[in-house]
Specification:
This protein is mainly beta. Helix content is 7%, strand content 51%. Strands 4-3-2-1-7-6-5 form a seven-stranded antiparallel beta sheet, covered by helices on one side. Strand 5 and strand 6 (75-80) form a beta hairpin. The longest helix is centred in the N-terminal third of the chain and has 7 residues, at 4-10.
Length: 102
C-alpha cells in the first residue's frame, strides 16, 4: 500500500487484518487477526468477539491522509491521540492493478 486509497481498496469485506496498538505510555497490545465484516465510504467494521463470547462489529472511521504512514505493501500505521495502530493485511487481495498482498 502506498496511498490511503490503496488502504481503502484493500479493506474489503472478508479481508483479514492483524492489529498492533502502540500507546503513548509504551504499552503494546496485539489483537487476534480480525475479519473486515462491513465497509462503507467513510468507515469499516471488524468482526470482534466480545469478552462475554458474543460476536459484534467494531466500527472504525477511515483515517485522514495526514495521520497515516505506509511501512510496506501490506502494513499501515495510523496515528491518533492515544498513540498509533498498525494494521497488517494477512489475506491475499486481488484488484485489477494489484495481485497478492497489498
Amino acid at each position: 500500500m502506498k496511498t490511503l486509497a490503496d488502504f481503502k481498496r484493500a479493506m474489503i469485506v472478508g479481508s483479514k487484518w492483524e492489529t498492533i496498538k502502540h500507546f503513548k505510555d509504551n504499552l503494546t497490545e496485539t489483537t487476534p487477526v480480525r475479519e473486515c465484516s462491513k465497509r462503507q465510504a467513510n468507515s469499516f467494521a471488524f468482526r470482534t468477539t466480545l469478552p462475554d463470547g458474543r460476536i459484534a462489529d467494531c466500527w472504525l472511521d477511515f483515517p485522514k491522509a495526514k495521520d497515516v504512514e505506509f511501512l510496506n505493501n501490506d502494513t499501515i500505521t495510523i496515528k491518533n491521540n492515544w498513540g498509533a495502530a498498525i494494521y497488517k493485511k494477512v489475506t491475499p487481495w486481488k484488484h485489477k492493478n494489484y495481485i497478492g498482498l497489498l
